[in-house]
Amino acid sequence: MTKKNEKENSLMDKIVSLAKRRGFIFPSSEIYGGFASCYDYGPLGVELKNNVKNLWWQEMIRTQNNIVGLDSAILMSPKIWQASGHLTAGFADELVECKECHKRFRKDHLEEESKTNCPDCGGALNEPRKFNLMMKTFVGPVEDEANITYLRAETCQGIYVNFANVLDSTRVKIPFGIAQIGKAFRNEITPGHFTFRTREFEQMEMQFFIKPHEADKWFNCWKEARMKWYLNLGLKKENLRFKEVAKKDLAHYAKRAVDIEYHFPEPMGWREIEGIHNRGDWDLSTHAKHSGKDLSYFDQDSKEKYIPWIIETSAGADRATLVFLVNAYQVVLGGRTTTTESTKEAEVVLKFDKKLAPIKIAVLPLVKNKEKVVKLTQKIFELLKAKYLTHYDEAGSIGRRYRRQDEIGTPYCLTVDFESLENQDVTVRDRDTMKQKRVKIGELVDYFKEKL
Ligand code: ATP
Questions:
Q1: What's domain 359-451's architecture?
Q2: Which ligand 1 atom is at minimum distance from the Cα of 196?
Q3: What is the pLDDT, as a whole number, of residue 90?
């Protein structure tokens, strides 16, 4: 491993450690020794992930005229997975096993890293075999063949099988989209890299139904729109790129696929965070064939009847949350805190976009032993917490408290001091500029309305 890799590798370790220490992400089932590759979102993590999902929903549904939402069930008829190809080779990865240590790896992952032997012990690998990723379960009390079903492996199938329901119950007209956020499960062979690849994860998917000959136009439109979403939420441009998926690597249903990739700290490097896919008419055609239901669309204006094509945007909520966390992580050398206690030690600041930050404002009494200051601070806390997720913190020196808030990415700290009692104003400190400004208490709500 190169020196650079060692340094950046430890950067990822530092982020994982911060995520646990400050309550963003915990390893699952920890008191029982953990449960491989499963994670729980802590008090700050759940806020961050909810912000990611809400901002996606806002962008993909609320600000659009022609996209509607859906929340379909995780458990569905196994016939859906038969029709979609998930139970056959279509949803199987090639797995190789080390003859020495018996660890298993995805063949395509080893190929990407040009490895022909076991990456762990160097042992020889056996012939690849197909491994289906669907998570099997039983419905009802009898565990037999007739009761087998699967936890969904992607949210989009729930959208395809509701295509006719949405058409019949709403006034949508092509081109239109159906979007949903929800859990998906895959029995991944090699989960890892923290929450990047897990067996249970959440997807944010939108299926856009179009006229077949308009596929290129809509594909490019959504590809650009999705990249813009990440950029607008502060991801660094130099860490983002498009990657055209080679024809030979396309999924069985895809006519074209472009991944949005992010450059994670080494050794991860460039990795997919979202896929934009032209799925042609494959999904509606296959479900029409297997269900016997007509899933075509009748265009009232042109009097044409056709199976719509689909452009899909498929993002991972957990991957996006991880990307925003990694992107926000900055180490600043000393002097950010403003009291005499400030040191020249490295200080961590999570520079989240304000819309993503889990806590928006921290309200801090300068001293905790002056009743009038504490009372006024608590009054301000009550006022602001009704509108924004606000922290009240009176423990430790003011410098220490600023540091604690910087470390979780709180955009604004608000300090109440003796002058506040006289002048009815407070100091507002900006996380990024560190500038401090006196703002009248009566004007705080309007002040933050503009900023947050
Ligand atoms: P990969 O090549 O990384 O396995 P994929 O191409 O199979 O991903 P898709 O089926 O296109 O992924 O899923 C769309 C999105 O869902 C991905 O871009 C990713 O953000 C998310 N995703 C897929 N699998 C996982 C997983 N195991 N853990 C976390 N997120 C995932």
A1: 3-Layer(aba) Sandwich (3.40)
A2: 29
A3: 64
Residues with CB under 6 A from ligand 1: 154, 186, 188, 197-198, 201, 203, 272-275, 314-316, 318-319
Distance 207 CA to ligand 1 centre (A): 16
Residues 240-272: tens digit of each pLDDT:
999 999 999 898 889 999 999 999 998 899 999
Q: Can you tell me the distance from the alpha carbon of 307 to that of 209, in angstroms, rounded to the nearest whole number?
A: 9
203, 206, 273: which to mutate for ligand 1, most atoms within 8 A of CB?
A: 203
From CA 257, how far away is CA 201, in angstroms rounded?
Answer: 21
Indicate if the pLDDT at residue 334 is higher than 80: no
Contact 274, 314 (CB under 8 A): yes
Q: What are the structural domain ranges in the chain? A: 3-74+152-326, 359-451
* DSSP assignment string, 355-402: TT-S--EEEEES-SS-HHHHHHHHHHHHHHHTTS-EEE--SS-HHHHH
Phi/psi region, residue 180 (left: phi>0; alpha: psi -120 to 50; beta: rest), is beta
Å from CA of 272 to ligand 1 middle: 8
pLDDT given for residue 98 in this prediction: 87
**Cα radius of gyration rounded to whole Å, the chain:** 26
Burial group, residue 400, by CB count within 10 angstroms (0-12, 13-18, 19+): middle
Residue of 197, 207, 270 to test ligand 1 pocket, by largest number of atoms within 8 Å of CB = 197
- For residues 361, 367, 369 and 370, what is the CA-based torsion angle, rounded to 10 degrees? -90
**Quick one: CATH architecture of 3-74+152-326?**
2-Layer Sandwich (3.30)
* Distance in Å, CA 243 to ligand 1 centroid: 14
Average pLDDT, the chain: 92
Testing ligand 1's pocket by substitution, the residue of 41, 56, 91, 201 carrying the most ligand atoms inside 8 A of its CB is 201
At residue 338, the pLDDT reads 45
Which residue CA neighbors atom 10 of ligand 1 most closely? 154
| Atom number, ligand 1, closest to the C-alpha of residue 316 | 20
Name the residue at shortest CA distance from atom 13 of ligand 1: 314
